[in-house]
C-alpha cells in the first residue's frame, strides 16, 4: 500500500467557536454539510453519501475545540482526519483547520473536496 501524504488546510469562518463545534462534532451538525446523513452509536459514526456508506471511529475530541476521526478501512494505519477550531488571540478571528491524508496523486482532489465541504458549512452557518 502506498503511503498517504498528510496535508493541512485553513478556512476562516465567521461563526462562534461554540456553534461551529456543534457542526463538526454531532451527527445532526455533520449531516447539514459534511454528508447527506450521519448516524452515530457511541464512537462509531456512519456517513452516507449518494447511498454509499463509510464508517469512521471518533478517536478523540476536545469539547469546543477539535474532533478527530479514523475511517474504519484505515483502522490499522495512522491515517485520520481532524477538524480543529482555531481562534486568533488578538483578532478573535475563527478558522477551521483541516488535517487529512491522501495518496500522492489524490491530494489536489482531496483538497478540492474539503474546499467544497467547507463552502457548504459556511452556507449553513450563514457566513458565506
Q: Hey, roughly how much beta strand do the residues contain?
A: 35-45%
Helix and strand composition category: alpha+beta
Work out the helicity level: 25-40%
Distance between the termini: 39 Å
CATH T-level topology: Alpha-D-Glucose-1,6-Bisphosphate, Chain A, domain 4
State the total count of DSSP E strands: 7
**Broad CATH class:** Alpha Beta
Question: Average pLDDT value?
Answer: 94
The count of helical stretches stands at: 3
Sheet with the most strands, sense and barrel status: 7 strands, antiparallel
Please tell me the total number of domains.
1
Question: Quick gist of this model?
Answer:
By secondary structure, the chain is α+β, with helices and mostly antiparallel strands. It has helices at 17-25, 27-30, 107-125, and strands at residues 4-12, 37-41, 44-49, 52-62, 66-71, 81-87, 94-103.
What does it look like?
- It comes from Corallibacter vietnamensis.
- It holds the Pfam family START_2.
- By secondary structure, the chain is an alpha+beta fold.
- It has one domain: START domain (Alpha-D-Glucose-1,6-Bisphosphate, Chain A, domain 4).
- It has helices at 17-25, 27-30, 107-125, and strands spanning 4-12, 37-41, 44-49, 52-62, 66-71, 81-87, 94-103.
- The chain has a seven-stranded antiparallel sheet with strand order 1-7-6-5-4-3-2.
- Strand 4 and strand 5 (66-71) form a beta hairpin.
- The mean pLDDT is 94.
